[in-house]
Structures are given as C-alpha cells and as structure tokens.
Amino acid sequence: MITMTDGLTWLAAPRSIAFGGYSVVLARGLGTEELVTRLTASVFGPTRTARVLGRLTGKDLIDVVEEGPWAPYPAIGLRYGEFGELVFVIKYGGWQAEFGRQPPVSRGGAHVFQLEFEEENGKPVPPQFSYFHDDRLMCSFNLHLDRSWGYNGVNGDREVAERVEGMLADAGLPDATVPRREVHRTTLEIIERCFGLTLPRGQVLEAKLPAVVLETA
C-alpha cells in the first residue's frame, strides 16, 4: 500500500527537480526496466539505445548529459525507481518535445501517467498531465486551467474526465483570479488523490538511482 506522504504537490515549487522544469512518468503494470525500454523506443528521430551508467544522483546525471559529445541530437538521461505499486522515470537534459506516442508506452494493459512542465520556456508552456491505459487516452489537461495552448477542459474518457472535472469544481477551479502556481499545486493534489499517485521526493532529489543515457545507435 502506498503512503501519500510526498504526493505530487512538491512538483509545483520553482525548479522542483531541475532547471528547465520537470518530466515525470509514473506507471502501474510495468517494471522499471520495461518502462525505460518503452520510453527509449518512443523518442523521435533515429533509434536510441539506453546506455547504463550505474546509480547516480540527479546532479550526477545532469553533469553527464551537459558535458558529453551529443550533437546533433539532444542529450537525454533517465533515472528510475519504484515506490509501492508504482514505478517512475525522471527525464533529464533535452527531453522537451522529444518523446512521442508510438510505439504506445501503455500497451498491454499498462497504466501510464505523464507530468510535464517546461518551466523555463518563454512562450510560456503550461504544465500538462496525461494518463493512458492500453494506448487509450483516459485523461489529459493543462494544469494552469488558463485556456492557454488550446485548453478546453479535461479530455479523455468521459467517466474519468467528469470525475476530475467534479474534483476541480469542488476546489473552486477554474478561477482566473487564482495565481498560476497555486492552481498548479491544487491540480497536482487533485491528480494525486484521483489516481492514487505519489513521487518519493527524497529518492528523486537526494538518492542515487539507476540511470541511463539515451544514445543514437
């Protein structure tokens, strides 16, 4: 049984994981190595392979992806672990807009949850949430709820979307007068409660976790 001690709301803090924002994948129904394999296969462009680096802190992996000779493709690193029934992957380096939906990471009945925020993007890009099950979109929405980037409510499976919309309404959202960071934190808390998700802050920020760097074949 997962304890929700850490939850997800800590991701709303400035630079909660690294400069540039965060990209977190949580899953049920997959092992950590299988999740890494599926994510590696979903990177756009030439085929990538995951080179094992051993156990690293986030800072260690950032140093690897920033200092290596990676051109012309973005350097991407992954750290991964598990917590209760959940497995998780944290992306580092040039992950922005580099991962697609094919082949489906959620194939074979897996439940896959993506939380992503390009925090330093000047456009700006709002934080996003998506949940796929067996390659079917179950839920997705813009966590700022501010109608930017085509936001039009909660998308996905009607039953799931209506449940999330009801929880947002109970929290008084959307409300354009509420600061974005507060909305971000509240929507993360709703996702946490609705889907039973948590991300172990101490492991992500302080521990040495298994790490790989994605290289072109």
Any overview of this molecule?
By secondary structure, the protein is an alpha+beta fold. It has one domain. The chain has five helices and nine strands, in the order βαβαββββββαααβ. Strands 2-9-3-4-1-5-6-7-8 form a nine-stranded antiparallel beta sheet. β3 (76-83) and β4 (86-93) form a beta hairpin. The longest helix has 16 residues, at 180-195. It is globular. The model has no long low-confidence stretch (mean pLDDT 92).
Strand content: 25-35%
Largest sheet: 9 strands, antiparallel
Question: What order do the SSEs take from the amino end to the carboxyl end, as H and E?
Answer: EHEHEEEEEEHHHE
Cα radius of gyration in angstroms: 17 Å
Low-confidence stretches: none
Cα(first) to Cα(last) distance is: 40 Å
Q: What's the average pLDDT?
A: 92
> What's the structural domain tally?
1
The helix fraction, in percent, is 10-25%
